[in-house]
Amino acid sequence: MEKSYLESYPDKNGYFGKYGGAYIPPQLEKAFEEINEAYDKLSKSHEFLSELKLIRKHYQGRPTPVYYAKNLSEYCGGGQIYFKREDLNHTGAHKLNHCMAEALLAKYLGKTKIMAETGAGQHGVALATAAAYFGLDCEIHMGEVDIEKEHPNVVRMQILGAKVVPVGHGLKTLKEAVDSCFEAYISQSDTALYAIGSVVGPHPFPKMVRDFQRVVGIEAKEQFFEMTGKLPDNCVACIGGGSNAMGLFSAFIDDPVKLHGVEPLGIGTKLGQHAASLTFGEEGIMHGFNSIMLKDEKGEPAPVYSVGSGIDYPSVGPEHAHLSQIGRTIVGTCDDADAIDAFYKLSQLEGIIPALESAHAVAYAMKLAKENPKDSILVNLSGRGDKDIDFVVEKYPIPTK
């Protein structure tokens, strides 16, 4: 019997085709081997899976609904747009799906602390929430630019009991936060778990985070079919590292559904003006994995930019690189202006304020709907925009309806 895609990838060494793997310092090899062995065991454990299921139902409020955006669909004058409402997941984004599971894994391993990087702050808030739930210490590394931009989430992390470590070197955003957290983790790996915030990093994290996020796609597939009697023609999600996208895509990979990953085009196509790794990047290794990345003239990770702090990353999850290479996904882009327009359109037409990251997927879906009037489009609305409202209204005046 032929294996399904998810059974086939990654291989035992963590590779999706030629992308993935574990490129880590010798002093971390034991820690990552321990994590891999524990996850391999726990992913088959009824006790672990049952506890996770109860947490998702009674604490996170899952399943989140699929919603038909009638007003937005009519405005676009074309295809029918649906949203998987991950903004209604506890803490306001999809991130808690893997954070609760990673914290549960940390408890199983006997760790007393979880630590991570964050860009938009959604992963940081989710991990701080998981730490509070399980009685663990929590340390979050965050670039100073993002701290200023995403102030509400910084306050939330601190209220939840997390230590927020400001990162002041380089561009002071997501890449530097990852660098800082990895460096800090080296001396704490005996007592702490680095809970990577996306489908990036050394094996087993791209696989593990995908598997924990699969709940999004599994629910959405069943809900959409119940609503329409069919599968969607298109699935759309924004991509930075790509956890929300893999969460949705994973349920549809073996189905005749078009999968669209939307990268941030920022303010232009020149290096430093965007974070569209798959569109403009090349093969390279950073943060412990091989994927497609944006490089400067020295071959180092290039400076990146996006109005969405959670997607301004110079690489992308190795599975996304693989799916793009084999032609299974369609890679699109969305610039700042269209993301802001979609942010306000969805707010004023549907009463839903999206995260700026999610607004990239919304903008792309709006164009897709106009161009494909007979199609259905299922968008992963990966987060809510509470964290962004102060920044947005200061920089981009509220349009009149």
Descriptive account of the structure:
The protein has two domains: 28-57 and 95-205, Rossmann fold (3-Layer(aba) Sandwich); 62-92 and 214-395, Rossmann fold (3-Layer(aba) Sandwich). 44% of the residues lie in helices and 18% in strands. It has helices spanning 5-8, 26-42, 46-60, 70-76, 96-108, 122-134, 144-149, 151-159, 174-186, 205-228, 243-249, 277-280, 318-325, 336-350, 356-371, 389-395; strands at residues 15-16, 19-20, 66-68, 80-85, 113-118, 137-143, 163-167, 192-194, 234-238, 258-266, 282-286, 289-293, 329-335, 376-381. The strands form four sheets. It has a six-stranded mixed sheet with strand order 3-4-14-9-10-13, with helices on both faces. The chain has a four-stranded parallel sheet with strand order 7-6-5-8, sandwiched between helices. A two-stranded antiparallel ribbon has the order 1-2. Helix 6 (122-134) links the parallel strand 5 (113-118) and strand 6. Helix 3 crosses helix 5 (96-108), helix 5 (96-108) packs parallel to helix 6 (122-134) and helix 14 crosses helix 15 (356-371). It is globular, with a radius of gyration of 19 Å. The termini are far apart.
Give a short account of the largest sheet. Answer: 6 strands, mixed
Helix content: 40-55%
Task: Estimate nothing, just give the exact number of structural domains.
Answer: 2
What amount of the residues lies in strands? 15-25%
Gyration radius over CA: 19 Å
CATH topological fold name of the largest domain:
Rossmann fold
Count of individual beta strands: 14
Structural class: alpha/beta
Q: What is the name of the CATH architecture of the largest domain?
A: 3-Layer(aba) Sandwich
Q: What's the helix count?
A: 16
Shape: globular
Order of SSEs, N→C? HEEHHEHEHEHEHHEHEHEHEHEEHEHHEH
CATH class of the largest domain: Alpha Beta
Low-confidence stretches: none
Strand order of the largest sheet: 3-4-14-9-10-13
State the separation between the terminal residues, measured CA to CA.
56 Å
* Overall pLDDT metric: 97
